[in-house]
Amino acid sequence: MPAAVSIREVATLAGVSVGTVSNVLNRPDVVATATRERVLAAISQLGFVRNESARQLRSGTARAIGLVVLDVSNPFFTDVARGAEEAATEAGHAVILCNTDESIQKEARHLELLAEQRVHSVLITPADPTLAPVHRLRERGVSVVLLDHPAQLADACSVSVDDRTGGFLAVEHLLAMGHQDIVMVNGNVNRLYQARERHAGAVKAMTGAGHRADALGVVEVPAFTVAAGLAAGEQILARKPRPTALFCANDLLALGVLQSMVRAGVRVPEEVAIVGYDDIDFAAAAAVPLSSVRQPRQLIGRTAAELVIAEVREHEAHEHQHVVFTPELVVRASSDFRRSSKVRHRMTKSSQGR
Amino acid sequence: MPAAVSIREVATLAGVSVGTVSNVLNRPDVVATATRERVLAAISQLGFVRNESARQLRSGTARAIGLVVLDVSNPFFTDVARGAEEAATEAGHAVILCNTDESIQKEARHLELLAEQRVHSVLITPADPTLAPVHRLRERGVSVVLLDHPAQLADACSVSVDDRTGGFLAVEHLLAMGHQDIVMVNGNVNRLYQARERHAGAVKAMTGAGHRADALGVVEVPAFTVAAGLAAGEQILARKPRPTALFCANDLLALGVLQSMVRAGVRVPEEVAIVGYDDIDFAAAAAVPLSSVRQPRQLIGRTAAELVIAEVREHEAHEHQHVVFTPELVVRASSDFRRSSKVRHRMTKSSQGR
DNA sequence: AGAGTGACCTGACACGTTTCAGGGCGAGGA
DNA sequence: TCCTCGCCCTGAAACGTGTCAGGTCACTCT
Question: Is the Cβ pair B350, A267 closer than 8 Å?
């Protein structure tokens, strides 16, 4: 392994001091053209690469921002990550992506690591409902933006989508389609902010339509995954009077539930209507195209990154902002038989065809 | 922003030298119990956090490994990433995830960044077919593992899946189902290794069955995405004698193609059979459950990370390995009407029901 | 009692960079 | 001729760690 070449060797080869090389790198305008070119030639000849560690050590903080999400496998979060990465790259920052799987321990572990890396800021969808680790970061002077969690913290920006309205839209739609017996497939309401808010919105729709609050059934799942959705589907299939409509707290759950319905031969939407949440790209391509509550995924990530970059730049003068986007219901075949009829009809022909 | 506390302040508070604090951190066994506890108390009292930059600067290399993939939005790669992250975390390494979108420029840019960070190794699915950036890394002494690209490089390990066999299995299956007019939906064969190999396998299956090599039609797409698949679908729908079977080079393409067929009312698999590649989780949940060539996604990532960690540990003694997994065809309804009949039948009833 | 032996700790240096006070030097003005 | 002023450059001092040669001290052995 060839020893890494340092600024000093470049300086020697170019016949200048290390200070000058550094200037060529960081403030090219202050050095004479001839010298600059000599230095640049030496750099490329030796294959010199800046040592970011040393820069950070000197400057006290890294040019990296940490992005901590609940589940990288969830297309919702990869889209958020894309948005954030775009904005970060434009501003010359690297993004370190961390996955917590909703585990408080993993979250703490990753944040510890990010603190050691001296990232200058962190974008996080909190797994710990107490937000304790977020506060620890703030105390250490790390800028934080809460993703998808609009806690009105005095000391951090946030970017979120109005989950309560999202839940409301979904259930309002199901009620409008004539459903009475609605079940929500949801994560733990106490642990996860999104679960709590979407549920609250759903309940609001129920009571607004004259139903009792507890008329909304609930199936709690341990994770927001397709597998958990499959399990929830089995559970729902076992219920004696089967609910006629399901509102799933995200699309992975909805896809799992849908799959178990299809396997069991339960017709969607005729026997059971399903609405998901997030409107990931796969929702439209599902066995029955999935109705879903759409969130501006990439925009969420981009906005968060931009906020945090601004915060670091503005320093003390920065005022924390709380950006809230509004979700939008996308109705497809899984909750509206009128939309499924055309395709369904052809499928009928197709089965007869063989 | 509170000044970050350094090892020196901890030393002062605990009444020891900085060397001792460092020892407590790195070789706790060499320091007396009483002293160690005093130091640890000081650490937690001051909220001291190691400065990773300084450590790296001293040790010359970071405890991070770079993971460079073609598309983070592709569930195949997120699964690979998960596997890699698991193994890396177990060994105490962080993972920096980079996305190239198949762009040579983005790839170069990310690798530059990783070099500056002095990552101790890089796992990469190359976007540049010349592998030039990979060789640059090697010259700088960075360990590299090629993902999904078994180039028999003398100076790097690789982990891949036998793409040629995968392509062969897919088309062999379609031929066995009685198809003659088969089209492959594929990326650029010259640019992407996977595209080239899967195509070669497909051709081998054709010729093996007594067809001419050019009997396999090809639709080239600009990217391995659902959107590109949709566009390819439109293109195929416009063909005068419509092909009876499609082999898509990955599942995102297949899902897109499938969606455009469903929209156009073309029956799958009766009128057009479809086989995808990767067997991502969403394949099974698609409008018509998708036949696909399965790869051990997480295992690929885990193996790659383990290889590179071993390489760094073993130093000079390391011998480069080329691990090749074997893919497996998973047949579902999209290419086999017998498997679709049950569900299809119930759907028939459902359409009649309303 | 003196020497030898561990156990434990100290203190300075090095890692590669950025920053900054200051120095050399040529040109222009008095 | 001398002074001043810019321009361009130098060189040393940090940044926070890990390492390592050496130092101190109590204890044991002869």
Answer: yes
Q: What is the pLDDT of residues B300-312, one digit of tens each?
A: 999 999 999 998 8
pLDDT band at A340 (very low <50, low <70, confident <90, very high): low
Rounded to the nearest 10 degrees, how much is the dihedral formed by the CA atoms of B246, B251, B255, B258?
Answer: 10
Q: In 10 A of CB B278, how many CB atoms?
A: 29
Contact B147/B300 with Cβ under 8 angstroms? yes
CA distance A254 to chain B (A): 10
Distance B58 CA to C14 C1' (A): 8
Contact between A69 and A101 under an 8 Å Cβ cutoff? The reply is no
- For residue B256, list chain A residues with Cβ-Cβ distance below 8 A: 285
A21, A56, B122, B141 from B115: Cα distances, Å? 19, 15, 9, 10
With cut-offs at 50, 70 and 90, classify the pLDDT of residue A273.
very high
**Mean of all residue pLDDT scores within chain B:** 91
pLDDT in tens, A138-161: 888 899 999 988 776 778 899 999
Cα–Cα separations (whole angstroms), residue A85 to A300, A303, A314, A325, B322: 11, 11, 21, 20, 32
Q: How far is B317 from chain A (nearest CA, A)?
A: 13
Predicted TM-score (pTM) of the model is 0.89
